[in-house]
Fold this sequence. Notes:
By secondary structure, the protein is an all-beta fold. 1% of the residues lie in helices and 41% in strands.
Amino acid sequence: MLTKIKFAPGIDKQDTAVGAEGRWVDSDNVRFRYGLPEKVGGWNSLLSDTICGVARKQHAFVDLDGNRYVAIGTDKFLLIYFEGALFDITPFKSNNAGAQTQFTGSTITTSTTRGTAVTITTSTNHGLEIGDIVELDSVTMPTGSSIAASTFEDKLCQVITVPSSTTFTVTSPSAEANGGGSDLTSGSSCTVNPYQAVGPSAQSYGYGFGIGNYGGNVTGSQSTELDGSLNADTAGTGGSGTAVTVDSTTGFPSAGTIAVGTLPSAELITYTSTNATQFLGITRGAKGTATAGTSNGQAHSTNTTVQNATDWGNWGDAVVASTVSLEPGLWSLSNFGQVLVATVANGKTFTWNAGATTPTANRASTSTSSFSTSNNPTASRATLISPTTRHLIHFGTETTIGTTSTQDDMFIRFGDQEDINTFIPSAVNAAGTQRLQDGTKIVGAIKAKETILIWTDTALYTMKFIGAPFTFGFEQVGTNCGLIGKNAAVEIDGVAYWMSNNGFFLFDGTVKSLPCSVEDFVYDDIDLTKGQQITAGVNNLFTEIIWWYPTSGQSFNNRLVAYNYLESMGSQVPGGIWYTSTEGRTSWMDAKIYPKPYATSYTSTDTGTFPTIQGVTGLGATIYFEHEVGNNQINTDGSSTAISSFVQSYDFDLEGQGTEGDRFLSVRRFVPDFKVLEGTAKVTLAVKRFPSQEDSSTGLSPFSITSSTTKKDTRARGRYVNIKIENDDIDQSWRFGTFSLDVQQDGGR
């Protein structure tokens, strides 16, 4: 006798595979629509280029002529996507008055014995750090150099080492052809244009060895390179036993600690004194950083980077508490009409005018014509433009504008109405300030219906326009419901949804906990120390709210959890309609200005092709995707990759007919029912005797099902059985309906 098997929509991971009666319990790349599971839509690469760095924010806007733009903020660059191409609009570094930081009259030194390294010397202190990006201009290479000036002219380079306050090194993609001899300097010149620094690619907290410098980035931290190899079986270079020889010790403390090698696997070496080129009185392998099985320390080749680690506290110590957060590079992006407003997290605010002549040839700046932000705070955690009153609002900003040391993570400053550069309150403007009380820092803020929602790490506030004399009114509307990360909240149809450190919430006028049928699965494996990397997005094509997050041991987002807000409304499904997937995205933009959602995916092992950084690899690469297109992943080279998908049911007995696993089941055949089936789906019937046992497929499983399949005969016997539908082929899709199984009782215990 055929028995129809039905399952409620969504995934239930809060119960056991047997206890989740009538539910699906696992899935990947599957969504639920009209109560039925289906394979998600595909995604298509929008560019043949990949983006250098990790993108964490997108913002689309339109100019007065109807041209569409997307601003993309990465940990290194600010880019514009326009008519299928990318443009670099990253601001140059500038002072508080908006004047560009530029080092003219700099010199370049190449070495005939050092391969591809070149040293640039500035006439004044450059303030650069390892990892900073610079543009080189007006380049003249040294007399006798085989490296052409065009190698660097108008090119981007990354700072590799910082030997002193007036020197830094970059890597040339070309090596000197001359062998031996002296360094080449004569006749060289260049102009150095430093890029605005954004921040690290990943977030970490000061809990133990391996995160770099626990106290945060040390401004102007010194570095140099080994002059000769440093063996593991000797105490110092050249067999000296007491010294480490480097290019220069200029700028290093007279006594302290150096890190030799690439962080976080560097060896720490203490020293008691220095001369011009040596660290003296050394002790190898400080803080347990010597390689196991060696007598003194690690082996390091000549030219290995050596950094000052003196002020980097607790190296190698597993601390149990820390307030230090090394947050990733983030942007706040909004628009003031056709003008992009972009703020670096804990940094400055810049504008870019899409209405300018040839706007893509311009950079974002604090001194954009008619849209200057030179009077804005210079250190803010986030900014946005109020939706109706058009105030530029700074969150977690300075109490004294222009003095970064006064940055207060709970302080809010809003400018005059319709004026993005007036922030000092007076009797004739609508600028003002407010400090929130509940929490230690403002984490994020979004526009919502008739209000602005502001989250601290512990609470939720509303910010509403009330007019003169106070301009905005503030009200705390929730406690113990803080935001996990800056981009972890969304608003749709007047309701805000967000992810906290301790669960999911919504605000529809009242803060409510959002029941979640996969909550334990998510929070048991999420890396809560990387909350600022979590990104949320709305996919209004399928009424989904999605959060992408990193799991434990992963540096970047590698999973998602999705909530179908529309189908959950009025649903009797316990915990709402949720599902999970292994899809990782670092930013998301819903289909509004563009007809499909846009998203970014990141891999840390490649190097992006735009913008190009000379001579550097392994900086990470972001692919820019259009989602809900076809059934495959279309790569940057045009090739297609299949999207694997599956959904698996709970372990059921005889249709819940009161047997509760008391008797064995005998499954003789099943009748598949697919609403949509393009290609072939595989169906597996897995049986087991006891809930704790591993699934055991039938002798005939998995079964290949096509649109013409009417039934499948099988032989399966056990107390419990589950159904798994999967597909991993290119150009294929499916949407499941119901199953009818021919099941009979087949003996007792």
